[in-house]
Amino acid sequence: MKNIVLNFGSPKELEAKRIAEIKSLSYLERLERLMAIIEVSHTLKSAKIIQSKKR
To answer: How far is Cα of residue 18 from the mean position of the Cα atoms in its chain?
Structure first.
């Protein structure tokens, strides 16, 4: 499968490319991407905040 470059173009073109990319994925690939996003979101929400000590 050809990689699609999403970094160039107007916002409408970028959105159209992203939608086309998502439509080309199988349901399993879509589910895997969704689960990865959920996992990262959960990790960020549950991460401890690191505060730097001011001297």
So the answer is: 11
Burial bucket for residue 17 (CB in 10 Å: 0-12, 13-18, 19+): middle
Give the whole-angstrom CA distance, residue 4 versus residue 1: 9
Residues comprising the chain, all counted? 55
Q: What is the pTM of this model?
A: 0.58
* pLDDT tens-digit readout, 8-25: 788 898 899 889 988 999
Note whether 42 and 50 are within 8 A (CB). no
Q: Which residues contact 7 (CB under 8 A, 6 or more apart)?
A: 14
